[in-house]
Amino acid sequence: MKGVTVGVLALQGAFREHRRAFERLGAAVREVRLPEHLTGLCGLVIPGGESTTMAKLMRTYGLDEAIVDFHARGGAIWGTCAGAIVVAREIEGRPEQLRLGLLDVKVARNAYGRQVASFEAEVPIAGMARPFPAVFIRAPRITGVGEGVEVLAEYAGDPVMAAQGRVLASVFHPELSGDDRVHARFLELATSP
Ligand SMILES: NC(=O)CC[C@H](N)C(=O)O
What we know:
Rossmann fold, binds glutamine
């Protein structure tokens, strides 16, 4: 994708892998560490990592408000795993945890249990011809979705990828599977009029 610059929040977590996936697709990537780094981007990825640490750092640098503004001005946002927690409206049992509330879903952190903390599954995604090799790492579970939310993929009866307007969330890690189809989907969303 020529002429497109997408941002990856680079405070903590798996941001380098996202960068490489977008670069394979021909997009330019900027690592975002301060509010001014959002200028001129069409989209921003909030990566996997540790959602409480990431949220604290976002607040420290003023990125929580800056990202909400960026979204209000038309920027696309994609949260993966911890990032999906950060964009959610509600975090079960943790009303005090900072989140952006951009996606009308309720999530439960680390909800896939200890013995299956990490696993891979072939997950069909709406609009994709072949299932996606989804890597789950201490993934949150989406336990509720609002009316305006479109569920794009499910695993074991739970939504694992969802969208609402220009916000996308996946509880798995597409940047770790070597399959760039979800990154391509996000670039389409971010560059659509
Ligand atoms: N791989 C991940 O991003 C895990 C998310 C992490 N368990 C959290 O709650 O923040």
